[in-house]
Design brief:
- The protein is mostly helical and 204 residues long.
- It is built from seven helices and no strands.
- The longest helix has 28 residues.
- The chain is globular and about 50 Å long.
- This is DUF998 domain-containing protein.
- Pfam families: DUF998.
- Keywords: Membrane, Transmembrane, Transmembrane helix.
Protein backbone atom coordinates (compact mmCIF):
# COMPACT_ATOMS: atom_id res chain seq x y z
CA UNK A 1 0.00 0.00 0.00
CA UNK A 2 1.19 3.51 -0.80
CA UNK A 3 1.58 6.11 1.96
CA UNK A 4 -1.48 7.88 0.59
CA UNK A 5 -3.57 4.68 0.77
CA UNK A 6 -2.37 4.01 4.32
CA UNK A 7 -3.30 7.52 5.42
CA UNK A 8 -6.70 7.16 3.79
CA UNK A 9 -7.38 3.83 5.51
CA UNK A 10 -6.37 5.28 8.88
CA UNK A 11 -8.57 8.33 8.32
CA UNK A 12 -11.55 6.11 7.49
CA UNK A 13 -10.95 4.16 10.71
CA UNK A 14 -11.01 7.35 12.79
CA UNK A 15 -14.07 8.68 10.96
CA UNK A 16 -15.91 5.38 11.49
CA UNK A 17 -15.31 5.57 15.24
CA UNK A 18 -16.53 9.17 15.41
CA UNK A 19 -19.64 8.26 13.39
CA UNK A 20 -20.42 5.37 15.75
CA UNK A 21 -20.25 7.67 18.80
CA UNK A 22 -22.39 10.33 17.16
CA UNK A 23 -24.99 7.78 16.05
CA UNK A 24 -25.32 6.51 19.60
CA UNK A 25 -25.60 9.97 21.17
CA UNK A 26 -28.08 11.32 18.62
CA UNK A 27 -30.19 8.18 19.02
CA UNK A 28 -30.72 9.00 22.70
CA UNK A 29 -32.88 11.94 21.70
CA UNK A 30 -34.81 10.05 19.02
CA UNK A 31 -35.86 7.18 21.29
CA UNK A 32 -38.74 7.99 23.63
CA UNK A 33 -37.77 7.98 27.31
CA UNK A 34 -34.35 6.46 26.67
CA UNK A 35 -31.81 6.43 29.51
CA UNK A 36 -28.22 5.85 28.27
CA UNK A 37 -27.03 5.03 31.79
CA UNK A 38 -29.56 2.30 32.50
CA UNK A 39 -30.39 1.09 28.98
CA UNK A 40 -28.00 -0.65 26.61
CA UNK A 41 -27.04 0.16 23.04
CA UNK A 42 -29.16 -2.79 21.91
CA UNK A 43 -32.22 -1.10 23.41
CA UNK A 44 -31.86 1.52 20.68
CA UNK A 45 -32.36 -1.20 18.06
CA UNK A 46 -36.12 -0.73 18.14
CA UNK A 47 -38.17 2.36 17.52
CA UNK A 48 -37.45 5.52 15.52
CA UNK A 49 -33.69 5.55 16.16
CA UNK A 50 -33.00 1.93 15.20
CA UNK A 51 -31.76 2.78 11.68
CA UNK A 52 -29.29 5.33 13.04
CA UNK A 53 -27.87 2.97 15.66
CA UNK A 54 -27.45 0.24 13.07
CA UNK A 55 -25.71 2.74 10.79
CA UNK A 56 -23.33 3.59 13.61
CA UNK A 57 -22.47 -0.08 14.09
CA UNK A 58 -21.87 -0.48 10.36
CA UNK A 59 -19.55 2.53 10.47
CA UNK A 60 -17.52 0.89 13.22
CA UNK A 61 -17.41 -2.32 11.20
CA UNK A 62 -15.91 -0.35 8.31
CA UNK A 63 -13.48 1.28 10.76
CA UNK A 64 -12.19 -2.11 11.89
CA UNK A 65 -11.56 -3.18 8.28
CA UNK A 66 -9.85 0.14 7.55
CA UNK A 67 -7.59 -0.27 10.58
CA UNK A 68 -6.66 -3.76 9.36
CA UNK A 69 -5.45 -2.22 6.10
CA UNK A 70 -3.58 0.58 7.87
CA UNK A 71 -1.97 -1.94 10.23
CA UNK A 72 -0.88 -4.28 7.45
CA UNK A 73 2.64 -2.87 6.77
CA UNK A 74 3.75 -3.20 10.40
CA UNK A 75 1.68 -6.25 11.37
CA UNK A 76 2.59 -8.39 8.36
CA UNK A 77 6.18 -8.75 9.53
CA UNK A 78 5.57 -8.70 13.30
CA UNK A 79 5.05 -11.63 15.60
CA UNK A 80 1.32 -12.37 16.00
CA UNK A 81 0.55 -9.56 13.54
CA UNK A 82 -1.50 -11.95 11.40
CA UNK A 83 -3.58 -12.83 14.46
CA UNK A 84 -4.32 -9.19 15.22
CA UNK A 85 -5.47 -8.57 11.65
CA UNK A 86 -7.59 -11.74 11.68
CA UNK A 87 -9.26 -10.66 14.94
CA UNK A 88 -9.96 -7.22 13.46
CA UNK A 89 -11.60 -8.67 10.36
CA UNK A 90 -13.69 -11.05 12.48
CA UNK A 91 -14.55 -8.14 14.78
CA UNK A 92 -15.85 -6.20 11.78
CA UNK A 93 -17.97 -9.17 10.70
CA UNK A 94 -19.22 -9.70 14.24
CA UNK A 95 -20.33 -6.08 14.66
CA UNK A 96 -22.06 -6.20 11.27
CA UNK A 97 -23.96 -9.33 12.35
CA UNK A 98 -24.95 -7.65 15.63
CA UNK A 99 -26.26 -4.67 13.65
CA UNK A 100 -28.26 -7.02 11.45
CA UNK A 101 -29.95 -8.87 14.32
CA UNK A 102 -29.99 -6.08 16.90
CA UNK A 103 -33.78 -5.79 16.74
CA UNK A 104 -34.07 -9.25 18.32
CA UNK A 105 -32.00 -8.39 21.41
CA UNK A 106 -33.65 -9.69 24.57
CA UNK A 107 -36.33 -11.69 22.75
CA UNK A 108 -36.80 -15.44 22.81
CA UNK A 109 -35.95 -16.43 19.23
CA UNK A 110 -32.97 -17.53 17.11
CA UNK A 111 -32.13 -13.90 16.29
CA UNK A 112 -31.68 -13.17 19.98
CA UNK A 113 -29.33 -16.14 20.31
CA UNK A 114 -27.22 -14.86 17.42
CA UNK A 115 -27.13 -11.42 19.01
CA UNK A 116 -26.01 -12.84 22.35
CA UNK A 117 -23.26 -14.97 20.80
CA UNK A 118 -22.13 -11.94 18.83
CA UNK A 119 -21.76 -9.98 22.06
CA UNK A 120 -19.78 -12.85 23.59
CA UNK A 121 -17.51 -12.88 20.54
CA UNK A 122 -16.69 -9.20 21.09
CA UNK A 123 -15.25 -10.15 24.47
CA UNK A 124 -12.71 -12.37 22.73
CA UNK A 125 -12.04 -10.61 19.43
CA UNK A 126 -11.28 -7.11 20.69
CA UNK A 127 -8.75 -7.99 23.41
CA UNK A 128 -7.32 -10.59 21.02
CA UNK A 129 -6.74 -7.91 18.38
CA UNK A 130 -5.26 -5.43 20.87
CA UNK A 131 -2.93 -7.96 22.52
CA UNK A 132 -1.76 -9.56 19.27
CA UNK A 133 -1.01 -6.11 17.82
CA UNK A 134 1.44 -5.22 20.59
CA UNK A 135 4.61 -6.56 18.86
CA UNK A 136 3.72 -4.60 15.72
CA UNK A 137 2.81 -1.43 17.60
CA UNK A 138 6.12 -1.56 19.48
CA UNK A 139 7.77 -0.37 16.26
CA UNK A 140 5.25 2.47 15.92
CA UNK A 141 5.20 3.97 19.42
CA UNK A 142 6.13 2.79 22.90
CA UNK A 143 3.18 4.72 24.31
CA UNK A 144 0.84 3.09 21.81
CA UNK A 145 2.19 -0.34 22.75
CA UNK A 146 1.41 0.30 26.43
CA UNK A 147 -1.96 1.83 25.57
CA UNK A 148 -2.89 -1.28 23.59
CA UNK A 149 -2.01 -3.50 26.52
CA UNK A 150 -3.98 -1.31 28.94
CA UNK A 151 -7.10 -1.33 26.75
CA UNK A 152 -6.97 -5.10 26.31
CA UNK A 153 -6.55 -5.72 30.05
CA UNK A 154 -9.36 -3.29 30.86
CA UNK A 155 -11.68 -5.18 28.49
CA UNK A 156 -10.67 -8.57 29.91
CA UNK A 157 -11.46 -7.35 33.44
CA UNK A 158 -14.59 -5.30 32.77
CA UNK A 159 -16.17 -7.50 30.12
CA UNK A 160 -17.07 -10.45 32.36
CA UNK A 161 -18.19 -8.06 35.08
CA UNK A 162 -20.65 -6.47 32.66
CA UNK A 163 -21.88 -9.80 31.31
CA UNK A 164 -22.33 -11.67 34.57
CA UNK A 165 -23.15 -8.94 37.09
CA UNK A 166 -26.07 -7.23 35.34
CA UNK A 167 -27.83 -4.25 36.87
CA UNK A 168 -30.89 -2.44 35.58
CA UNK A 169 -29.48 0.83 36.92
CA UNK A 170 -26.10 0.97 35.12
CA UNK A 171 -26.14 -1.58 32.27
CA UNK A 172 -26.03 1.12 29.62
CA UNK A 173 -23.15 3.00 31.23
CA UNK A 174 -21.10 -0.19 31.66
CA UNK A 175 -21.66 -1.23 28.05
CA UNK A 176 -20.69 2.21 26.81
CA UNK A 177 -17.47 2.20 28.82
CA UNK A 178 -16.51 -1.05 27.06
CA UNK A 179 -17.52 0.39 23.69
CA UNK A 180 -15.47 3.53 24.30
CA UNK A 181 -12.42 1.46 25.21
CA UNK A 182 -12.71 -0.36 21.88
CA UNK A 183 -13.34 2.85 19.93
CA UNK A 184 -10.44 4.60 21.68
CA UNK A 185 -8.05 1.80 20.74
CA UNK A 186 -9.11 1.71 17.11
CA UNK A 187 -9.02 5.50 16.66
CA UNK A 188 -5.76 6.11 18.52
CA UNK A 189 -4.00 3.26 16.73
CA UNK A 190 -5.26 4.58 13.39
CA UNK A 191 -4.04 8.11 14.18
CA UNK A 192 -0.55 6.85 15.03
CA UNK A 193 -0.43 4.76 11.86
CA UNK A 194 -1.56 7.75 9.81
CA UNK A 195 1.28 9.86 11.18
CA UNK A 196 3.71 7.01 10.59
CA UNK A 197 2.74 6.92 6.91
CA UNK A 198 4.28 10.39 6.55
CA UNK A 199 3.00 13.90 5.90
CA UNK A 200 0.49 14.65 3.19
CA UNK A 201 3.26 16.07 1.06
CA UNK A 202 5.08 12.70 0.98
CA UNK A 203 3.41 11.79 -2.30
CA UNK A 204 2.35 13.91 -5.22
Amino acid sequence: MTPSALRSAAAVAVAGCIAAVLADMISWFLANGYNPVAQTISDLAVGPSSWLMDLGLWCFSVAAIALTLALWPVAARARYGWLSMLCLVLLAVDVAVIAQVNEYAGEGNPGADIHQWGVYALGVLFPGAALAAIPALRDVSGKLERFSLAMAVAWIILGPFYMFVPSDSWNGAAERVLALIMLAWVSRTARHLRRRAGPLTAVG
